[in-house]
Every structure is written in C-alpha cells, then in structure tokens.
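Weekly structure sync, notes
Attendees: PL (lead), two postdocs, one rotation student
Agenda item 3: pending single-chain targets
PL asked that the sequence for the first pending target be pasted directly into the notes so everyone works from the same version. It is reproduced below exactly as submitted, 570 residues in total.
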Amino acid sequence: MSTVLAKPYPSKADNEDSDSGSVKGGLTPTDSTIEVPTLGAPVATEKAAFWRRPKHELDSVATQPSVFDDPATLEKYRPPPSWENVHRFDPAARWTWREEYAIVRRIDWLIMIWACIMFFSLDLDRSNLAQANTDNFLKDLGLTTNDFNLGNTLFKLCFLIAELPSQLISKRVGPDIWIPSQMVLWSFVSLGQFWLTGRGSFLATRCLLGFMQGGFIPDVILYLSYFYTKNELPLRLAWFWVSNYLAEIIGAFLATGLLKLRGVGGRAGWRYLFLIEGILTLVIGVASFFMMPPSPTQTKAWFRPKGWFSEREETIIVNRVLRDDPTKSNMHNRQGLTIRMIWDILKDWRMWPIYALGIVFLVPTNPPQTYLTLSLRNLGYTTTQANLLSIPSKVLGMLLLLVFCYLSEIIDSRIVSTVLLQFWALPLLIALYTFDKATSPWVYFAVVTLITGFPYVHPIQVAWASTNSAGVGTRTVSASIYNMFVQAGGIIASNIYRDDDKPLYKRGNRVLIGICVMNIFLYLFVYLFYRGINKRRDRIWNSWSAKEQQEYLENTKDQGNARMNFRFAY
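Predicted structure, written out during the meeting:
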C-alpha cells in the first residue's frame, strides 16, 4: 500500500527536502505545523541487499516524510481522541536510526518471539494428526481414508466459519484477551483427543478444533501491525511461519518418542501424543495472558509496573507506525465493527483478486503434503522411519520460505515471488504422475520431499492482503476473508486424493497439474489488474493541480483503498 503525498499547497519551508540531520537531546514537540522539523531521507527509493538492510548514519534522522508534515493533510489524518495511543502522537517528533533500530530489536524480542511461540503451539496441535497416522490411528478407531478426508474437511470448514466471528470478537475485546482465550479453549479439545473412541468422536473433535483455532492467525497479524511498519511486517511474518515449520520438525521428533508409549496403560501411543502436546499448549495459552500488552502504550500491568517501554520509546513506536500508515489510528483497539462496515468491506471488489488466489494457490501442494507420512507408511516404511523421513521436506520448506520472503522485498514484487511456487510444483507433479508401482520408494520419497518442501509463499500473500487494505477495520475483515478462502482451498485439496485412487493417486495428480497451470494464468491476471488501477490513478492524480488535489482530500467520500491517492502493491 502507498498513500501518495499531495503537491505542496500552500508551499512550505524548503527544509522538507533536507536529506538528513542530527537529533540532539530529547524530542522537541511544537504546536506549529508550518515549520516542519528536519526529516530523514526517504527510504522508499533505497534498495536493500539480500542479506542486509540499507546503511544509514546511526545518528541521522530516521523520521520519514508523511501526510502529518503538511498542515492541510495533518488535520485530515490526525488520530481521533478515542485512539488508545493518541497521547503519544506528535507530528513534530524526531528520532535517529540508532534509536529506531534499538526499538525494533526490542519489539522483536518482546512481541515477535512470543507470537512465534503461540503459533508454534497452534501448529503442534494442528499437525499432530499426521504423526498419529503413522501409529495405526485409522485402524485403531476403525476409520478409512475417506473418514480421514472428511475429518480434515470438517476441520477446515469450521476453521473457515470461525474466521470472521473470531476477528469481530478480537476487535471488540482486544487480541490481547481473545488470542490467549482461544489457545486455552482449543488446548482442552486437543488434549481431550486422548479419549477418542471412534468415527463420531474423531469428527466432533475436528470440528471443535476448527472452531477454536479459526481466526487465530489474522488476529495475531492484526496485533503485530500495531507495532511494525508495512515494510517490516512481511519479513516478520516469514519468521512467524518459520515457527510453523519448527513445530512440524520438533513435532516429528516428539512423535518418534511419544508414539513409543504405545502399550503403556494399555493405550495407543497416539493418545499420549495428543495429551502431552495439548497440555503444552494449555501452558503457553495461560502464559499469553501475561505476555500480550494491548498496545505499545499499554504495557504496564500489576505484574509489570514499569512497563516495557519508556515514554520516549512509546512516542517513537507510535509515530513511526502512523507515519508509515496513517489509517492505523482510525479505530480503537477495543472498538467493534458494525454490520454496515462489514458489508462495505465485503463489497470491496479491489480485494477480490487476492481472495481468488487464496482459494487455489496452495491446492497443488496440499494433498502430497497431507498424505506424506501416510504415503511413506504405505510404501513399507516403519512408524519411526515415516516420521523422520518427513523432516527433510520441513527443513527445505523453512529455508525456501525465508528465501522467497526476502526475495519479495528485494525485487519489490508480490506477484513474481508468489507465482514461482506454481513453477516449482508443476514439473514435480508431472514427475509424480508418471510413477507406477515399480518406481523405487527412494525416488518417490525424493520427489514428494521436493513437492512438500515447496516455497511457502502464504506469508507474502497475507502481508499483501494487509497492505492492499486501508484502515484497521478493513484490514481486520479482509484478513479474515482471505484466510477463509485459503481454508476453502484446503477443503478442496482435502478431497482430491480419494480412497479408490490410492496408493499412486493418478487421477488426483492430474487434477493438481491442471490447477497448477490455471494458477499461473490467474497470477498474470492479478498483475494486470492492479497495474491497470495504479496507472489510471497516477494519470488522474498527476493531472490535478495542488489545489485540486487538496480539494479532493478535503471533500472526497472515498474511503480506504478507493481513494485516488492510494496505490496497490503487486
């Protein structure tokens, strides 16, 4: 997302063009908005190297130009009195790169790492079903592959249904309350799988887990947006999803040990797997009530009387985030959404192409990934071997996730970095389709490992959807809708491999190849769609005089990404 600045009207002091300066002493807030204190050099035009950020003089000004530097647009975007951080908003605040780097590192340690730990626990409970499969889970409960598919479908359907309600609850009570509550609720369901008795209880727990976990990811992403700028968030989300892979890798090792408890107390090993990992999530969920402050300026509590940040640090956090995206102050963090607001967001056709991508982009790789351990067992590998052989694909996927997310920022293209997933999967799916019963198990393992170790571009598209939304309310709903489409895609993928098509799933692989080709053309359409909108808006906006631009900003009824000075990322 980019909010294009208006032409100066009336003209201001020439020091807006100053490239950098030093900040000495503390903040020097002033009531005057006519003389703008020295700003830092804009970083939007600077290209980052693959392995490091652009270099800046540590004691030069880091404050970026924004709509708050123009007296006319300052009042248009000024945070309302009800916003929870308004007491730290100061358009005259300036800070250095040394201060900004230190604060971002501090946020990473205090906020980001705990978000990763929470996601780790979610995926531990979400993915342990695949490990339970290697311990005769289906046979013990008298289930078939189609029952397993139905369970996955119900889980994703309930996950999908819960997405938007969860986000609405989170927006009303605050993510710092709702996210830990979700974790505690689903941990009881997860550990309760210790007592599964058959098909009915299996399907019931799949539904409950979907309902309890739905909305967790967009809730956390909305929460993180309170602390990070739009350029910082995609790379943080990459590391956020690394915890997903770590959960699967560590989960595979845990399963190798826990499944050996089969026979203890006359119980199957998979029962202890669900019980112990569910208890771990319960502990993390309870701790999360104490580890999630409501906002950057609300970190003080009875158990943390001094808070995490000083007043100076709070001022920098609040103003750097608002300068990056002025719309982040248009709703209080305990303010709910009205039905009218939700309906207006749902009608935003400019977001529909990203939603369409959400439903199909992971389908080509999803079935091989879901059935990896089960396929390895069908090929004759033991329970321990099947779990350990799933680890290389997780390590590969984790590395490619980071590479592609960094690539997205370096080339500044969401389309190029995400469509590469389809080009990765297509030749491998074609190879998988050619396999027959005479194919070596190790050849099968190598190809399936490459497919399931695909570059996971989902974090890029999540950040892309957030970037192309405008405003906290829009971002809240659009994140839920996007994830609902992703879960709908998971439902489709869960029913491509069928019981009458195993073990090679020839028919299913033909379908996956077709969807992969279709996706490539869909990405091309989305590229042309957003490029066309931006070019049209550039042509109109640049043809206006400074007076016409100012009149538009003052009088327009356009909201969010419908505004003429909004530019879409693609």
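Discussion points:
- Confidence is low (pLDDT under 50) at residues 11-34, 47-51.
- Residues 108 and 410 are 21 Å apart (CA to CA).
Action: rotation student to compare against the earlier draft before next sync.
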